[in-house]
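Sample entry was shown:

___
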Amino acid sequence: MAVATAIKVPYVNLGAQYADIKAEVLERIGALLDSGAFILGDELAQFEKSFAELCGTKYAIGVANGTDALFLSLMALGIGKGDEVITAPNSYLASGSSIALAGATPVFADVLDDMNLDPAAVRKAITSKTKAIIAVHLTGRPAHMSELIAIAKEHGLHLIEDCAQAIGAKLDGKHVGSFGTTGCFSLHPLKNLAAAGDGGVITTNDDALATQLLKARNHGMRDRDHSDFFSYNSRLDNLQAAILNVKMRELPRWTERRRAIAGMYQHGLAGVGDLLLPNDRGGERAVYHTFIVQTTKRDALKQFLADNGIDTKIHYPVPIHLQQAAAYLGYKCGDFPVTEKQTATILSLPVFAELTDEQVMHVISSIKAYFAS
């Protein structure tokens, strides 16, 4: 049954983000077009400096996308054929595909109720071939880093952070992207800090690794005329950096708005039906790239909300280990019960910063109406 209202709530509205900054963005783009500095220019250098300062790392290296950030990190660490890398099966495909693209074998470990890696499951997945763990800060909530760091140190493993959904998130006062060997960020248009196209960043505190990565993103070149090793073309465009430099200033405001919307959901939906709601745990400052509720009535609730003008999504309906692309790894249904249970119950509510309070309250009242009926 639909609630009588004309309110529409899209899942995203990418254009709305530019309402207050469009003139400045166009001015910077115009200046860049006049300069002709399109590749590895001043805008990129400024962005990398600001991004490193935000994350509290020595280096931030702009690359073409978040997948390349993961892949180049693995390559720079010498991880490849015969090696295993442990990650979560409930993430976006890139968390697993980057491992395969590097020539290594993705090994999955199940997750906890908060959708982040279960450290105990990670420990059980370690073999003599394991070389790294990719910890995914899924939904913008920091993974259980203290436990994962301890496991990595105990077994001599690299710890790579997949921060694609978590720019600005903190754990015990420390930014994601500063815990591991590298932090890997996506700047895809749907992310909390979004380019007008694809983009990515790698953060690190390792001097030698940073030097290697700066070459690895640019054909292995140490200068204009000399290449130290064959590599890829994966540079963050100066044009995208110009746009991102404007958006970096707005990121704290957008993050606080996302957190405020999350707070409205947490307060308004507490105790409603069988909903399981995400909440910051002790020491955690989440950025809510997605606000994912869990309910056994997911499909019916999703349809009810659609009937009431509210768009929702599922992130993600098919886990990586059950994708056709991963069939060669030999996983099957039942291997990761928490992940697989969540695929049937998760529902992402709209949480982008430009939502109005009226729209958020419409989502809340509609969910209450569904469970009341």
Q: What stands out?
A: DSSP finds eleven helices and twelve strands in the chain. Residues 238-268 form the longest helix (31 residues). The chain has two domains: 17-245, 250-372.
